[in-house]
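ok trying again, last paste got cut off:
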Amino acid sequence: MRKTLFKWHSISALIALIPIMIIAVTGSILVFKVEIDTWLMPAHMQVEYTEQTPRLNFNELIENIEAKHPEFLMGSWEIFDGAPGQKMARADTAYVIEKATGYWHKLYINQYTGELLSAPVTVVHDFTDWLLSLHYTFLLDFTGTVIGAVMSIILFFLGVSGIILHKQFWKKLFTLRFGASKRVLFSDVHKLFGIISSPVILIVALTGAYFNIYAVVHEIEEHSEPHPLLTQALYSDSIDFQHLLNRTETDLDNYRPTYMTFPFEPELHITFYGEVPTGNPLTSEYASMLTYSRDTGELMSSYDIRTAPAVNVVVDTFRKLHFGYFAGLPSKIIWAVLGLTPLWLSLTGLYFYWFRKHKGRKKRLPSQATQLG
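nice, full thing came through this time. structure:
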């Protein structure tokens, strides 16, 4: 049984070698996506903020974009607010849809002045957005999403099988035989890194597989036939978005909206995603939802994570668990460092595979020489 498991562990690692290395490196970098964006594009990502400065009316913000970029329709909106005591806040991000092509673009806007901080660019234009696409789909769209799901499942299998193969790991966990051969030392390091990083790797692999499988299923179910290009907004001209934004705080107790989607498909309405206090540090900032009619603005449905089924609560934690920002900087550093271990495990595993092949070839040489003699 152990020999068979080792064989499949090795075969799976070889099959997924390059994709897993890409996932590991890009994932570790993307843990600090916001920080990297802020460093690379400070004028786009940050705006001056004081506690006395209110957000501009939401309708004005939308109208400002529509007036300057009439070739686009509103798609969704990331809502940010400054924290008490801070002088800078993260700028809002608006996602818009090009009428001529249906392609999504993004732009940054100062939510306190209405100033557009950038022109609309594709959702893979910025470095970290391109990196996210590489991490998530290998730049292959739907096909890449399927590949990503398969690679995540393989990574999860490698983590589980590695633990089983080295189930007695605690006996010699920190034993590194520096005086031994390179193969023995690499074997010790391979086991050490694998065991230490296994909790993070298993979490990242499982949540990554869920996200990709969910995206694949959604794409198949919802987009089996392409929707026609939109030439005008699907919501009524009478909709007061600022009123809806204000209503969210009363329609759901202690609610703070963080993201809003416009009706960009025929069956969609206006939905706010946001957070509520739960006491659970793993609850995401998009856990609760309020949906309003695109025709009348009336509340159609509400979803409160505090009263949701346990399975929904668990699935919601996947976002923070996958990206590792549930405990601020410390958890992000741990996720970034341990998230790189598949790179080392892949390289050492490849070395072991080469060594076994090379050793096997040497064993065959004497018999071949005898036959030639």
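cool. The first strand starts at residue 46 and ends at 48. Strands lie at 46-48, 72-78, 88-90, 92-98, 104-109, 121-122, 256-261, 270-275, 288-292, 299-303.
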